[in-house]
Write a structure and sequence with these properties.
Two copies of one chain form a homodimer.
Chain A: E1 5-6, E2 16-18, H1 50-57, E3 62-64, H2 67-73, E4 81-83, H3 85-91, E5 96-101, H4 112-124, E6 129-134, H5 138-149, E7 153-159, H6 160-165, H7 167-175, E8 179-183, H8 189-197, H9 205-218, E9 222-224, H10 231-250, E10 257-261, H11 266-280, E11 286-292, H12 297-300, E12 302-307, E13 316-321, H13 343-350, E14 355-359, H14 361-375, H15 381-400, E15 405-410, H16 418-425, H17 436-443
Parallel strand pairs in A: 5-15, 6-7, 6-9, 7-8, 10-11, 10-15, 11-14
Antiparallel strand pairs in A: 1-4, 2-3, 4-5, 12-13
Helix pairs in contact in A: 1-10, 2-4, 3-14, 4-5, 5-7, 8-9, 10-11, 14-15
Organism (chains A, B): Candidatus Muproteobacteria bacterium RBG_16_65_34
EC number (chains A, B): 4.2.1.20
Family (chains A, B): Belongs to the TrpB family.
């Protein structure tokens, strides 16, 4: 039997990130300020270090990965690429299925790829502390780990309802030395205001962002750090696709289709962009972003300028959006509950260069369980979206007899999501259809610009 | 900087397990029946397949690993060996610290190494179902995974209090297709008896063993499977040490000391026995088993014949024991709460060929947190015992200036143990001293044989 795992040596960790902007047919639409005019990159200097801002606006194809960042990557990178022999057999498909596995990182997903880079650049800029928000805790724990690696203090504002219901991610952050506060908190003016109005507020990601940004903007020694959406975040994640390309080459294969789940876009961009470079050069392949039917940003949203956060603090980003105050139903794939999407992913989708598909919750868990029973690994609910579509592609091959090569990104393990599996097995998990009325409402509040 | 991870290719997965019996100065003390006479291996035929029984009593040095078992091992093996560069720096030690990481398996520890082998041999023998017990769920989930790989049904009797308090390991077992029952259950006579006497019984490992053994003994299609203690289990685990030896050789190093936590002994035996072969051949090195001060079997127990289970169903095993009905305090390293120890480990300890040390709970968590902050990985509470002693050895080197090479086994990750870390951080975790009076009591009930 051919190899199950295609491994790379530490010396093969890529030396550069890939910037998709260099190969896009059109320049990225610029972020706009409240006045509807493009904002100057320097305007972000209060919360981001200059190196990050330069990456955010760069058009260079290759951006060097600092040696100190590669040094930390070596704790888990290169991540393995698997050939899913046993899943193929279980499906009876003639397709070849490969998956890149990012769950081997300390935090258990792809998120540390950018957290480590962001912590490094902030440390270089003399910053002492990072502030960020987190929902269920995946991003907060990644930044806690990264901060610890470079001796930066990390302060995480964790949505109160998650803080109380999900103590394990919180303990993980504390293990890596981060301070974690339930948001809304009494540490910031935003938090105190919200608490004054509603002392029992359960919090929201939007509120937590406000607290973290306020703290970063108000303190010289503190910056803000974001886990998805922005160009520099997707840039850092391209290490996933760059490694996967080397590994596919070692396996003597090239994918016909590359699949990844897509919330803010960093997981999809991470694996897909390096393959997009080949597509831009004329190679035929499909790049498929998978989102939940309950939050179908690309497949049902509008391509328009909108705020990145719920309360409207960020610059306006041109992206597919369901409206910045749209509240997605409570699916367990928390990382995919985002009203917007990465401007880079959005633009490529708008120009017809990538595909998107939306899948319902129960079908993703069904796929995740089938995957776990064949391959052993327990996927995160977000990753189950990619598993679902990879299995669907393989089953289509079974019907058609095509021997396609399928590659997907298994973005993380589900060790902290077993409560969701528990609900799935006990029949308590719901499917949500497209919340058309709610989206129509929030769309009315799209800012009038651009 | 030298490599962080020393990896092996799939083709380097060992082809044979190593049987330490071949290199022990004296033959192993035989298990005894209730009459005090050595039992015939065939007596175990009601619950074990013949291939396993033959391994249990084998004196052959090398036992081939079936190709079908190596095929499943390839899903995560060879496991990585790490050089703990960042931990060394944090400690300021001249010692070199290496660790083998078994947390990469689907179940998150070394346990699947034997679960997969046991499932295979049972499948070969025409068995359809495996019954086993589990406490917190680590062993049950490993056997659930292994059973799924070979199409065997798996029935797990899970101690009721864990079943109710720790639903996540239960969901994990269900994801891999196992049936999980809270024990005592109404599925067996033993269970029904216990429930009749106490309908609210919280259960115990001893009770769960009774249920699983009863089911296996009473059904032709069903066998029993055990996760530690017995010779064949330790045999299967030697794949850990065999890989580690190859990896140390690749790194150009040889350990002065090999450290592992020790409950039933399969984790310690797994990494230490292949190195013991060198010691038996004259090489100078130390092999150190680490146990909790609250359950100090090797360091405080008596070397005597005793039952392997609480209620006295098993053959009598010659081992270090605290008495078969000793109830260890409720430390979070559930895998180390065992009154006895592997007869092979016990005999080597009795003959002065290996060392043992007991460490208190708080010091192990302190070590685990220090490790996580340096290396990223969050260790299981059991593994923290090995981390503690590895750090202590490294700090002794700092004092003495010795440049020792330290190797320890990081037997698993702590993703399902964050509640224990949570208690550690909130100051709720207790230290337990040696429960001298309780041990004196249980020692009175040692069977009078041998």
């Amino acid at each position: 039997m051919p190899q199950t795992k295609i491994l790379l040596d530490e010396s093969e960790i890529p030396t550069h990130w890939y910037n998709v902007v260099a190969d896009m047919p059109n320049p990225p639409a610029p972020p706009l300020g409240p006045d509807g005019k493009p904002i100057a990159p320097q305007a972000l200097g209060a919360i981001f270090p200059e190196a990050i801002i330069m990456q955010e606006v760069s058009g260079e194809r290759w951006i060097p990965i600092p040696e100190a960042v590669r040094e930390i990557y070596r704790l888990w990178r290169p991540s393995p690429l698997y050939r899913a022999h046993r899943l193929e057999q279980a499906l009876g498909t003639p397709a070849k299925i490969f998956y890149k596995y990012e769950g081997v990182s300390p935090a258990g997903s792809h998120k540390p790829n950018t957290a480590v880079a962001q912590a490094y650049y902030n440390k270089q800029a003399g910053i002492k502390r990072l502030a960020t928000e987190t929902g269920a805790g995946q991003w907060g724990s990644s930044l806690a780990f990264a901060g610890q690696m470079f001796g930066l203090e990390v302060r995480v504002y964790m949505v109160r309802v998650s803080y109380e219901q999900k103590p394990f991610r919180r303990s993980m952050m504390q293990t890596w030395g981060a301070e974690v506060f339930a948001s809304p908190s009494d540490k910031t003016e935003s938090g105190r205001k919200i608490l004054a109005a509603d002392p029992k507020s359960p919090g929201s990601l939007g509120m937590a962002i406000s607290e973290a940004v306020e703290e970063a903007a108000g303190r010289k020694d503190t910056n803000y750090s974001l886990g998805s959406v922005l160009n520099h975040v997707l840039l850092h994640q391209t290490i996933v696709g760059l490694e996967a390309k080397k590994q596919m080459e070692k396996a003597g294969e090239y994918p016909d289709v590359v699949i990844a789940c897509c919330g803010g876009g960093s997981n999809f961009g991470g694996i897909a962009f390096p393959f997009f470079a080949d597509k831009a050069a004329g190679r035929k392949l499909r790049l498929v972003a998978v989102e939940p039917t309950s939050c179908p940003t690309l497949t049902k949203g509008k391509y328009a300028y909108d705020f990145g956060d719920t309360v409207g603090l960020t610059p306006l980003l041109k992206m597919y959006t369901l409206g910045h105050d749209f509240m997605p139903p409570g699916i367990h794939a928390g990382g995919l509950r985002y009203h917007g999407d990465s401007p880079l992913v959005s633009q490529l989708y708008h120009e017809g260069l990538i595909e998107a598909v939306a899948v319902p919750q129960l079908a993703t868990f069904e796929a995740g369980v089938q995957f776990a029973r064949a391959e052993g690994i327990l996927p995160a609910p977000e990753s189950n979206h990619a598993v679902r579509v990879a299995i669907d592609e393989a089953l289509a091959c079974k019907k058609s007899g095509e021997k396609k090569t399928i590659l997907f990104n298994l973005s993380g393990h589900g060790h902290f999501d077993m409560a969701a599996y528990d609900k799935y097995f006990s029949g308590e998990l719901e499917d949500y259809s497209y919340p058309e009325a709610a989206v129509a409402e929030s769309m009315k509040r799209l800012p009038k610009v651009g």
